[in-house]
Amino acid sequence: MDEKVSVLVEFLPQLWDGLLVTLQLTLGGAVGTIVLAVVLGLGMLAPTGWVSVPSRVVVEFFRGTSLLVQLFWFFYVLPIVLDVNLDPLTCGVLALSLNYGAYSAEVVRSSIAHVPKGQWEAAMALSLSPARRMFRVIFPQGWALMIPSLATLQIQLLKGTAVASFITLQDLNERVGVLRQQTGDTLFSYTVGLLIYFVLAWLIQVGMDALERQAKRRLGRGGPGLLTRVRTRLRGNGSASSTTASPTSGSGSTSSTEVAS
Amino acid sequence: MPPTENGTAPAIEFRGVEKRFGDHTVLKGLDFTVSPGERVTLIGPSGSGKTTILRLIMTLESLTDGYIFVHGDPLTHEERGGKRVALPGKQVRANTKRIGMVFQHFNLFPNMTVIENLVEAPIHVLGLSRAEATEKARGLLAKVGLSDKETEHPSRLSGGQQQRVAIARALAMDPDILLLDEVTSALDPELVDDVLQVLRDIARETDITMLIVTHEMQFARDVSQRVMMFDGGVILEEGHPEDIFTHPTQERTRKFLSAVLD
Amino acid sequence: MNPSWWNWQAAADALPLLLEGFLTTLIATVGGTIIAVILGLFIAVLLRGLPAWAAWLPRLLVAFVRNTPLIVQLVFVYTLFSMNEALIEVSALTVGIAVIGVHYSTYMSESYRAGIDAVPQGQWEAISALSLPPVRSFRSVILPQALRATVPSLGNYAVAMFKDTPFLMAIFVTELVRTAEQVGGRTFAYTEAFTLAGLIFLAASYPTSLLIRRLEKSLATY
Questions:
Q1: What is the pTM of this model?
Q2: What would the pLDDT profile of A117-142 be if each residue is shown by its tens digit?
Q3: Which of A3, B144, C96, C164 is deepest in the core (most CB within 10 A)?
Q4: Which domains does chain A have, with CATH numbers?
Q5: Touching A: C residues 133-172, CB under 8 Å
Q6: Do chains B and C touch (3 or more CB pairs under 8 A)?
Q7: ipTM of the predicted structure?
Q8: Which residue segment(s) compose the domain that C130 sits in?
Q9: Please, are residues B63 and B76 in contact by the beta-carbon 8 Å criterion?
Q10: C217 phi and psi, to 5 degrees?
């Protein structure tokens, strides 16, 4: 076992290089996914068919064909059709973005559609411009709804990056294969590899959970944020005892302050 | 086109307004006018089209046929060369700037604090500076008795408090027309009076034109100069609240009132 | 009219081979789905039945399998098998079906869990009020209701699995996409082969998805 650990330690720089490729694919794919998700998701909700129908077609197309087919298509076919040279990393990011972007777009669409109609109407009654209506009122509320599903898809995206080895990229998956050859121990090498992926997935989940808590706090749900608590405490200096009690004890205490005022 | 230019024009005019949802006709060739500063209460059984009238003025629904004029200017459609032409969205939005609406379910923005709810539109629609908008918002919050809730999230307020914030939010836009759509229907009975008192104060202190849909008949009697009874998408009868409430001419009105006043 | 990069003859030549590869894809999907549907239910019931102190290890295992790449798992298990004298005879397709089935069972167990959770509390109360035997009544009262709500979700995962079967080429199973790659390598008709492969996937998965969506709607309105 010691011997294998020393091989692993020696191999660490190579493993690190592989990890970097995986991280590049994940981060590049994540950015592409979110951009496409918002564009296509809102596109599908557009009132004019000129926008909503093409958005829907793109989403269904990339959801309906397999990730690996898309990857190979970008790698082998697109250079022929467009007569350009795409490096493998770009191909990988492109395929991952489009595939998971299409799934995420559906999440964005359905979350936005779940924001109560009254919110749209209130924004219209205040004559807010369509862009402001969407990005200041509707989207922040849909955002809280979409995070859990987007988190799942971001982890799927991380797992999906392992396809990169099919197009000659030396990502974490490929490096783990090399580690296996060097140690001759399949169980050891792949356990190490899978654990790294597992930790990355866990980090994504932790990050997305934090985002979700923040988003819910903005909607005044799930306990007041630190900032609100401090602010209330600072403002209520005179009658501190009654005002500091109200935000922590929630809606139940509002009736008592109402009577007081 | 400043609204004062047409000082003599009615605040609101419906001309042959028709509204259909699919096969169902909600409003049939409706004609009426509301003078500037007038307070009109719309009553009638549910489905009689009264809420639809408010929603048409707020442009939350599009009218199937006819025209609505606000201070003499066409709101959503105009007649051009004998044809009914829809106005561009931007112009419609500009036309509704000085029309405010308070909803049954408050519809405060949950992602903003109370004060943010109040300054959002004044800053980004009316072009006020943040300082101006904040000062004005604070004044309005004081008026509705919620000065201490400035930085709260709406979800932490009672229904009555939320509705008072919603009224303040509508007033922050300096409306000359205020539409009140069953604003107390979703409230617990003990919270209704606070909200109605705020509205009575506004009615007394301002000359905002008001269109009110409500089941609170005492409030309607106190505030409005005219009551319109709707049934089946047409005005069944209208008149001074005293007359309508004490001796309605129509059998349907009498039945409706006795059901509501119980 | 014809773009220089598209050759109808090459496409026509590739199609029969691709359809042959597609047959393997279908076999893998059906086999994987059967394993995932059964194992997923088993996991869901197990995790529900175990006390909290005993459930953490299976829970961690399930999370581990779900949150690590299928491709890596495939190569891992396939290599283990091929290194072992006793297991070397097991075909790559069999290994692949097993791994893909286990991987998706961790997803499907979540669908079952959600389905069981969605059974109204009153049903559980009715069981205890009638003093019905717990295991039997779970099987005959709770489960049928839970399964109804679960079917569309399981269907969606089956479609997702179908689109993941190309990963089997990592362990040299000649399914649709590997066939396309081989055709491309032999005839340089990459464009035709991969485009057709994509269209075959779309032709199979899109109608299935629509069917599931319709099923979802009809179950929701019930």
A1: 0.85
A2: 999 999 999 999 999 999 999 999 99
A3: C96
A4: 2-218 (1.10.3720.10)
A5: 163-167, 169-170
A6: no
A7: 0.90
A8: 8-221
A9: yes
A10: -65, -45
